[in-house]
Structure formats: structure tokens, C-alpha cells
Amino acid sequence: MELMDLIxxxxxxxxxxxxxxxxxxxxxxxxxxRLAPSALNRQGWVFYVVRDRERIQRVADAAGxxxxxxxxxxxxxxxGTTHECMTNxxxxxxxxxxxxxxxxxxxxxxxxxxxxxxxHFDPDKMRKALDADENExxxxxxxxxxxxEHPAARKRKEIAEIARFM
Length: 166
Ligand SMILES: Cc1cc2nc3c(=O)[nH]c(=O)nc-3n(C[C@H](O)[C@H](O)[C@H](O)COP(=O)(O)O)c2cc1C
What we know:
Blueprint: H1 3-9, H2 23-34, E1 45-50, H3 53-63, E2 74-80, H4 92-110, E3 114-115, H5 123-130, E4 137-145, H6 159-162
Antiparallel strand pairs: 1-2, 2-4, 3-4
Helix pairs in contact: 2-4, 3-5
The structure holds flavin mononucleotide.
Flavin mononucleotide (FMN) binds at residues 11-12, 14, 116-120, 151, 154.
């Protein structure tokens, strides 16, 4: 699919089929992540691919308020390990991991899979749920699977409201 088609058709999916996600699709998504840019090309990140049912339960517990998350086939969790403030005062973990996970989101869409960007979780609980290193800073969790819903597009601001031409 053309990139703009992928962007136009993507939705946040909060209801998934139980169908397993094929290994080659997961590998393609990880390759998209691997090739993402990062500040100084540091690639200070780790991505958990959670498929074990018990582990999915622990991750969903750490998110807390999403009953549907317990039933998804895969959850990706993107963690940063750099913990550096860039010159522009933004944290490179947040930016680097977010770019990589956006690449993942679009490659998942290309593979016919649904995703949902999720930031509502307690990072300490998430680290424990993953048995992650203290150094790993969970930035985003992203369920991955075949959509079992077709949400309508949510409204966006017009270009004239958000762009400043000068
Ligand atoms: C930074 C960020 C955090 C988000 N956190 C959550 C979340 O914790 N739970 C959730 O259900 N959706 C979450 N979303 C999804 C947004 O609600 C969704 O992208 C937005 O409503 C637009 O809908 P769309 O993605 O279908 O276009 C998050 C999205 C972003 C970008």
C-alpha cells in the first residue's frame, strides 16, 4: 500500500481477534524498528515482544484499566536506555523510541495488522511486569494483532489550524 494510504487508513484498534500473528510479520516490524533513526544513531533502546499469555497478563495488569488488553495476541513494549536530555531539552528516550514505534505502527498496518499506541501505564510496574533492567525506561506499549473492529476516523484539525507558513 502507498504510504499515504497506510496513514489515512490506520486507526487505533482496541478489539483484536485471537488469531496468532505470523513470525515473518513480527520480523518485518522489528526490521522497521531497527532501521529507524535515533539521536546520534545511538539506538539506545530495547523492544519487548510479549506473546506468552501469563506475561501478557502481567503487562495488562501494569496498564491497569484496559480489559481488552488481556486478550491481544502480541504486545510490543518500547523502552529507552539512553536517558539523555538533548540540546532541545527533550528526552532522547522518548523521541527515539517514539520514532521507532511509529515505524512499527506503519509496518504493522502494511502487514494488515492493527495497533494502538498506549502510554497509560505505570513505568515501574511495567518494568517489573517485563522483568526489565532498571536502566530500561518503558515509553510505549503497543498491542499488535488482527483487528476485530473498524473504528471510524477521528476528527483532526485542519492544516490551516496547525501549520504556520512563513
Ligand atoms: C502518545 C499517545 C498516547 C496514547 N495513549 C493511549 C492509551 O493509553 N490508551 C488508549 O486506548 N489509546 C491511547 N492512545 C491512542 C489515541 O487515543 C488515538 O491515537 C487518538 O484518539 C486518535 O485516534 P486514531 O489513532 O484512531 O486516529 C495514545 C496515542 C498517543 C499518540
